[in-house]
Here is the input.
Amino acid sequence: MRPPGADERPLVGVVGSGIAGLRAANAILRSEVDARVVVFGDEIHRTYNRPGLTKKRYPLSDSLGMTIAEDVKVKGAESDALTWRLGTGVETADLRARTLRLSTGETFGYDALVIATGVRPRSSVRGDRECRLHTHRTLRGLSDARYVHQRLQAGEKVTIVGAGFVACELASLAREYGCEVRMLEARRSGPFESLLGERVSEALRRWLVRHGVTFLTGDSARELLCEAGEPDAAPSSDRSLFIDAVGSVPNVEWLHGNGLDLSDGVRVDAYMRVSPWDNVFAAGDIARYPDPWAAGSPTRMEFWKNAIDTGNLAGRSLASSLGHGSPASGISYFPSMSTEVIGLRVQIAGNPRTSDSTKIVCGDPDRPDQGVIVAYLREGAMVGAAYLDQGARLNGAYIKLLRSLRERQPDVLHAP
Here is the structure.
């Protein structure tokens, strides 16, 4: 019970100051709910564009960190009803008591909660332990970006473990800076193989090699990967930059003890609601929701548009739970993402990962710079598409394919 004279407006906590948390806060404030919103963030920076950290080369400058921070800043959620608690993490949560324990030692009581704590980079060292052979770095936040860009500006040799989106963008960035680049992918034949299939993956690997990247796979890559340093292992004299880009770990530890399904992020329903709590929602990289593109199987996506869409939905659903705004529709989205690999534009839509066959619609995967479009099928029906090009030669054909793919989008899932 609140003390006499206390503000009686509902108090909403948003844990996570990334784009999902920002979008959730914006959606709550736009719903005209008369509530106070407090956003907690581990970092001292306001919301910024994380994908932007690997997409641009910056000039030499003593203020490199500030330049990057200003360049990737995202605006939004300016309101007297909103309070930012930056540099303040949440250590534990008691969802039954509706309280959070903060890194400052304070407790925070809420009426409704949005979980948007995202993920952290995984280490390539077995058991995520420390390696004595290299200084392993990751690129997730602004402080990481400042360090990595400074090292790349110095033209240092860089080894990148992994071949996903972050790894390929880092390789592209390093080549722009003029660095010697080596990529290690022990489990697959090339970039994005689990998403786009072996043929497209091998084409992307050849593209990287053609542009000066040493790309090692299988045993050749495995031999250069670090084990957890043995007690008698001598520190390496190799001063090259060694970057892990091998996936991520959802930040769920602070939620333990609440009876939630935390097996891969936080499981939610089609409205981003965390069962069995009607006042708790999750969004962004951490949320695992029923996938409209895979017969409702739980999925967890880590890309920018997903964080925006699920953040908006979580905010609308929370506002509706407080009696404001129209009831939110369940998750129904058109997945799309894009990246650039040393000048080669890669666009992906739908859910190629669920396909059982592929079809080359246009072009030749062995000449991706001339444009190639691939359709991904499941039981003969298209579930995804990919477009690789160095220009926009086949853009019209790709847009036409996307229209056809949208028409196959499943019906909105409804919660039980």
Q: What stands out?
A: Residues 228-235, 411-416 have pLDDT under 50 and may be disordered.
